UniProtKB/TrEMBL annotation:
It comes from Galbula dea. One of its GO terms (cellular component) is membrane. It is a multi-pass membrane protein. Residues 31-163 form the MARVEL domain. PANTHER family: CKLF-LIKE MARVEL TRANSMEMBRANE DOMAIN-CONTAINING PROTEIN 8, MARVEL-CONTAINING POTENTIAL LIPID RAFT-ASSOCIATED PROTEIN. The lineage of its organism: Eukaryota, Metazoa, Chordata, Craniata, Vertebrata. This is CKLF8 protein. GO terms for biological process: myelination. Its main location: membrane. GO terms for molecular function: structural constituent of myelin sheath. Coiled coil: none annotated.
Amino acid sequence: RPRSHTVTTTSSSFTANLSASSSTLAYDREFLRTLPGLLMVAEIVLGLLVWTLIAGTEYFLYPAFGWVMFVAVFYWVLTVFFLIIYMTMTYTRIPQVPWTTVGLCFNGSAFVLYLIAAIVDASSVTKELDSHNYNSWAASSFFAFVVTSCYAGNTYFSFISWQARTLQ
């Protein structure tokens, strides 16, 4: 005698929301028109200048420039990553992450470490070390201070956003 089986399927609201929200990626063009967006683009462009100016020299012979390279490349990669997150509005799909706090910590740490790296870079530039690399190192020092000011601006905007979020 054959048995009759009844199969019941249900879909959870989580999977329905996940499939509906992840089907298309949003693109926020307006972010690049805001001051934090413009500062982020400046951080990427000028940060690229910092590490390429140093990478084109024999920086590995001088540990101070190795530190500057680490900071410049590390924060350049993370800034590109955060720009992609903001441009694609991925932060709206992951509400569990406190994005205002993450942004404040990221920009604050970038400001502090870039300031240290810029000071180390500037204090390490001397003609006695290697006159062949002097101009590249001097230019990287200048751009490191400019990138530091960009991160300082974004730290300010992140703090304002974080403070408004925590007061609610």
